[in-house]
Amino acid sequence: MITVNPFGLAGSGLGLRRALLPALQADVPDNIDFFEVSPENWVGVGGQLGKQFRRLTEHHRFVAHGLALSLGGPAPLDTAFLRELKQFLDQHDFVLYTEHLSFCSDEGHLYDLYPIPFTDQAVKHVAERIRQTQDLLERRIALENASYYLQPPQAEMDELTFINAVLSEADCHLHLDVNNIYVNSVNHGYDPVAFLHGLPGKRIVYGHVAGHDREPSGLIIDTHGQNTIEPVWNLLAEAYRCFGVFPTLVERDSNMPPLAELLTEVERIRALQKHYVYCRSADGMKEAAA
Questions:
Q1: Which of 113, 139, 214, 216 is the most buried (most CB within 10 A)?
Q2: Cα Rg of the chain (Å, integer)
Q3: DSSP label at 257?
Q4: 12-289 — its CATH code?
């Protein structure tokens, strides 16, 4: 049995990209329990593409993972976008909205995700913007731990302490990206398992696995353009062991393979989930018999 979280999410999911629509219109495989889209790519889309998208959202569970809200940015929140976003989420009955713990705009859009300084002031700034977002959307949101390539300036705390402080101050959920933990651990030299164990497991609403590219210098770039590697799968298994099974989704944004190849990763998530549900059930029966 796979546990269903308070948002009705369970099992294994896949990031919906337009290249996958033809195959999914013909049939949605049973091992895809939910889909994720970036709302910026779908708000206001009409015509035949909009109709295809609507047919999927009418019959399958969806979550929204934002790209452009810039929760850590200095410019005022884009309240016009948030009103449009709320209408989109309500129209398609999305069960959850998540965003990155980063910023991507100031007076204009910067077209990338940048790290926020790990400071007390930044904690308060981001938490206030999260509360404002939740008020406008009339729902709690989740934050994804983001990848970054340069250490934020003027840091007063480490990344883990910063994430925990923001989640606590804003009282929001955690969208756990396992690949981002691995990427940052290699690029910045920390123990990914110790980092994982320091996160608040009770706040996790769902997770990501993804692939990445490694530069000749050894730097890892979070491209979502390759298959998930074994250390990331091992880290996901450790997350299930530590926190219990949570819904998990495959992200793929470039170098897109056929749907059948993506489904092998979706099925691997499902197999891991079943394994750790069984392990926990077995441990529970042993404790009851003791």
A1: 113
A2: 19
A3: -
A4: 3.20.20.150
DSSP class of 92: T
Q: Which tens digit of pLDDT belongs to each residue from 15-47?
A: 999 999 999 988 999 999 999 999 999 998 999
Domain ranges of the chain: 12-289
How is residue 238 written in tokens? Answer: 């450790």
* pTM attached to this predicted model: 0.91
Give strand ranges (E) for 109-219: 109-114, 142-144, 173-177, 204-209, 213-214
Phi, psi (deg, nearest 5) at residue 202: -70, -15
In the chain, DSSP assigns E strands to 12-15, 34-37, 61-65, 97-100, 103-105, 109-114, 142-144, 173-177, 204-209, 213-214, 220-221, 248-250
Residue 154's nearest CA partner among 127, 203, 185, 120 is 120
* Beta strands per DSSP E along 18-102: 34-37, 61-65, 97-100
Spatial CB neighbours of 111, under 8 Å, sequence gap ≥ 6? 104
- In angstroms, the CA 210 to CA 198 distance is 21
Helix 120-137 crosses helix 79-91 at what angle (to 10 degrees)? Answer: 50
- What would the pLDDT profile of 103-134 be if each residue is shown by its tens digit? 664 554 444 566 888 999 999 999 999 999 99
